[in-house]
Amino acid sequence: MAYGDVMTVAAVIVAGGSGLRAGGERPKQYQLIGGRPVIWWTCKAFLDHPSITHVQCVIGEGHQQLFADATAGLTLPPFTFGGSTRQDSCRIGVEACAVVSPRHILLHDAARPFVSKDVIDHILASLQIADAVVPGLPVADTMKFAPGGVITKTIDRHAMWFVQTPQGFSFPKILAAHRKALTENHLGLTDDAAVAEAAGFEVHIVQGEERNKKLTTQSDIEIANHELSLKAIIDRPDIRMGQGIDFHIFEPGNEVTLCGVKIPHSHRLKGHSDADVALHAVTDAILGAIGEGDIGVHFPPSEKQWKDAPSSIFVEKAVRLLHARGGMISNIDITVLAEAPKISPHLPAMKAALAPLLHVTPDRIAIKATTTEKLGAIGRKEGMAAFATATVRLPL
What we know:
Low-confidence stretches: 1-6
Largest sheet: 8 strands, mixed
Oligomer: single chain
Number of domains: 2
Structural class: alpha/beta
Distance between the termini: 37 Å
CATH superfamily of the largest domain: Spore Coat Polysaccharide Biosynthesis Protein SpsA, Chain A
Number of strands: 19
């Protein structure tokens, strides 16, 4: 009998931390690995599991936009904000699942994106005979107790385990245990198993997986990105290229939009949408690489719904069509032609804005700006042009 036939299971993805130890400009759960944010891979693992009936994310204050961008395209219920500690965040996540009244609940670190179906299956199977189950790895190395950096004794490692997530529980019991810990001011517990132990019920441990490690440092992020990127390349040996070219004339205004970045200028670009000449060229380049027509086919300028629309919508549609065929972007190369405004100071911001739209890291995007040496309409500052080349990879 399948697990889904005998129990309803909620999963809480705990993503409230700042992730500062990993470095970078954003918390580790929102950094890219394999072209997707860490939390995307984590959520997808639980959303794809046939026995998981509800996936509840707990995020940090101020992370709303990061979360929205990271989970775009995933069907998730509204997130909830976490607390000041992991224990608080887990309790809040468990409380949020009360509306669906699951029989069992799994609590998982957002920074463990490689959790497998087998590990989840193992936890769920064990929950049919236990109220609390956690995965772990037996300690293989000799352990020393060394307070202050001086070894005082050797610890018997044979009963020692490194504990992982997801940690699985009877929902009513872990909910009561969290509430009890809060009422009794029993704080500082580092995982939900400790909350269960403090409430006095038995916690079982089952074999986890080496792959299910928590990404903590920048090195962890880089290794995970390399692993996923290598797999993506091996799975997609069909390399294709597409080209996109776009022109727009100037009209009265006070800024132009390039790659979604607003640049102050004496004029704006004229167009039915926001006239982002760079994103229009990128859209056509991606569509060309997969033989899906051009931007006008998918977004006719005669349709009112695209009036003043952000051109990111067009790029996202082209990327969805690519992903629907199992493809990925390998590289985007953009050249912007303009006498004014000066583009070069804005190139880093343009790359940073474009990378999440393409689901690639910024190093896979090249953006250059040049002039026409005052020749032609562009040289007379009557408009602007952009050229883009997209290199994509597809399965055979």
